[in-house]
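Title: Prediction job returns without error message
Component: structure pipeline
Severity: low
Priority: P3
Assignee: unassigned

Description:
Job completed but the reporter wants confirmation the result is attached to the right record. Sequence as submitted:
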Amino acid sequence: MDILTFQGFEIHVARRQIRVSGEFIPLGARAFDLLMLLVEHRERVVNKAEIFASIWPGQIVEDNNLTVQISALRRSLGSSSITTVTGRGYRFVAQPAQECVGAARRAAGNLPLRSLPVYGRERELIELLRAHETAPCVTLCGLAGVGKTTLAIWAARQMAVAPAYPHGVWQVELANVLDPERLVQAVCESIGLEVNPRDVPLTQCLAQLRHRELLLLLDNCEHLTDAVAAFVDALIKEAGQVHVLATSQEPLRLRGERIIRVNPLEVPPTTNAVDAADYGAVRMLLERVRVAMGGSFDPGAQDLVDLVEISRQLDGVPLALEFAAARVPVLGLGGVRSRLYDRLRLFSRGLRTAPSRHSSLQAALEWSHQLLPEPAQLLLHQLAVFPGGFSLQGAELLVGAEGDTQLIDHLDVLLERSLISRQPGARPRYRMLETTRGFAIEALNATADGVDWASRLAHAMAQLCMNAARDRDSVLMWQEVSNARAALTWALTAPGHEQVAITIATFISVGLGAAGATGEALDLLKRVRPLVNARCPTMLAARFWHWYGRVGSEGRMPVSLSVEAMLTADAMFESLGERRHRHSCQRHLAEVELEAGHAERAEAHLRIAHELEQGGAREADRMRRLRVESRLADARGQHDLALRHAQAALELAEALNVKRYRLLLRADMAWTQLQMGQADAAVDGCLELLVYLDDSIRQGQARGRVLSGLTAALVAAGHIERAVRSAGDSLLALRQADLLRARCEVFAWVAAASGARQAAAQLVGAGEAFAAQSENERDPISKMARQRAMELIEPILGDAELRYALAQGRNLGEAGLYHLLIHTFAPAPPLQH
C-alpha cells in the first residue's frame, strides 16, 4: 500500500510522510516509525514495552521520549487520532477513508512491484518531487553505490499513481548498453515501441512519444552522457508531455535540467551519539544486518557502538553498508569493524543478482574510475595522499600546478562525478570518501611512476604551513592540522627530511597556539627539538626557538626554559636584522617574566620593543605591545593605567578588525575590574563576551580566558550556582589550552563556596604543585582565590585531613586533575546570558 487514507489525512508510506489538508507535514524518523507501528496494530493497544523494543531497539530510553513523539503525532494528525489507554499503552483510532488509493490508481509501466526500503532520504525525495513539477528533466547525480537507483525507483513509484502520467512510468536500464547507437533502441524496447530498423530510430521514437504522457527513468547514464543528453534534449523539444528522471555520476548539462546531488547517508557525529538510530546510515545497516541474520538480530549496547562506527568509517555509502552487513553472519559486527582497513578485499562478494558493477566494492569504484579521462584519473590518485581533505592551494603545491587552469578543470571533473565533494564554507575545500581514497591510494602505488608522494606531501605541507603563518590565516592552518600531523610523522622517520619536519612542526604550532590547542603545539615542537642543530637554517631555527618558548609559557614548562629559548631566538633574529620578529620576541619575553613575578625584567623587554617600533612599526605590533603594557600595570596594582593601556589597544584592535585580540583585551579588562573589587562589572563584561565566542577551536585561547574570568567573577560576586556551571563549561577549553593547572585556585574557590571542601583542598594542593614546577608567581586573582578558598576550608577540615587533601592534590597528574574537576563540576545546562 503506497497511500493509507484516513479522515483528515493521508499516510504516504514509501515517502515516509503524512499529508494533512493537501500539505505534506514533516515528521521525524522516530515519529513516523511509531505511527506505522500503531497503524499496523490498530486493532489493539500497543504497550510501551513493545514500542520501546521496536522504535528504540537496544537502548535505554526514558518515558518522556515516547511522550514527546506521541505529542508530535497528535499535533499533526489531530488529538483524537491516538488514544492513551492508562496503564497499558497507546492505540491508533483514526477512521479509515480509503486504505489503498495507490493500488487503485496504479498506472502502466515496468517498475518493479517491490523495491528496497529507503532510509534517510526524505529531504532528497521532497526536493526531487518538487523539481519534477517544473523541470522536464531531473538528474540524480552521485558516486557509484550511493543509492541513486533505489531513490529514483522510490520516487518513480510515487509518480506512477499521479494523473500526470496516464501512459505510465518506465525504467530503462542503461548499464549494459555499451554502444551509444543502441540507446534509442533500448528505450523503445523498454517501453514496448515498435520501430522499423530501416528508418531512423530516433525519428520513429519521437513520433510515437509525441502524444504520450509518461515518465522515463533513464538509469545509469554516466557512460553514455553525450548520447543521453542529445536524446533527452530532443524529447524536451519534440515530446513535451514526456518527463525524464535520470541517474548518472555526472549531470547531462542540458538547459532546463534540475540536478539533485545524492550524497551518502547521514552518519552520527560521534560513536556514542544518543540518537544514533535516527541517522539513515545506521538505520539501513541495522536493517540489513537483521536480514542477513535471518531477522533475529537484537543489538546490544556494544553492537550499537559497532554499527555506528562501521557506518562512520564507510562514510554512509549504501553499497558499502550492504557489503558490511553481508559479512556480519561470519565475522560479527566487531569483526567487520576491525577489518575495515582492508575493505576493498573484505567487501568482494555481492549478491548473485547484483549488476556486475556492484558485485564488489572494488568493481563499483572501477566502474566510476574507468569513465574518467586519464588526467583526472591521475589527479584522483595523487590527491588521495591528503588524509584530511585539501584546499586548492594544497593541491597546487602537491602536484606543482600553481596557476594551471588544467588542474581546476580536472578538479571540476572529479567534483562533477562525485569522486570528491566540496565542503561547505566561504573558501573551496575538498574531501574524498575514505573508501574512494583507499582505492585511489592503491592505484597510485600500482603506477610505480618513481615519484615519492609521501615526500611531495611533506614538502607541500611545509610550504602551506609557512604560507598560512605568513598570512596569519588561522582558519587554513586549523583545516590542515590532520594533513600536517601525517606529513610530520613521515618526515620524522625519513632520512634527509629533518628541515621539513622542523618547518611543519614550527609553523603548525603557530596556528595551534593561537587557536588555544597549545598542549598539542608544544608536543609537536618537542618532537622536533632534537633536530634543531647547527645544520638548521638560522631563520628557521630562530622561528622554532621563539615558538618553543612562547608555547611553553603559562606554566607549560619552567619559566627559565621559556626565557632561554626566546633569548636564543632574539639573538638569531638580531643577527638577521629581523626587527619585527625581535619585537614579537621581546613582547613574549615580557609576558613570561611577568608570569614569574619579574616586573622589572618585563619592563626592560617592553622598552626594547618600544624602541624597535621607532622608525616605523605596524599598528598591529603596537596593539600587541600595549596589551602587555596593560598586564604589567595590572601586576603592579596600577589598575587605572592598565585599563587605559587596554582601551588603547582595544581601539587599535577594532580599527584593524582583529577579532581574537578584541576578545582577549575585553577579557583582560574584566580581570582588572575583578581585582578592583568590581565583581558585578566583571561578570557583565564576561557575559557580554560570550555572545561573540563561537565553538570553534580557533577561539580556544580567548574562550578559556573568558570562561575562567567569568567563573572567578561569579564566585566573587556571590553567584555560587552560576559559578559552578561556569566552571564546568570552561573545563574543555582550558584543557585544550593546557591551562587547567594554572586555574586550580579559582576552581578551589568555587568548590569551597559550593560546599565541596575536600575537592577544594585537593585543588589548592594542585595549584601549589603547579606554581612550584612552573616557576610562576601566582597572579593577583589566583592569590585572592587561594586565600578565600582556604578561609572556607580550614574551619571545616581538621589539620590532618587538610594536610592529607593538600598532599593528594600535589600528586595529581593531568588525568587525575581533570577527573576531579569533572566530578566536582558535573556538566550542567549552558549558562543563560
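Comment from assignee: result matches the submitted record. The longest strand covers residues 242-248.
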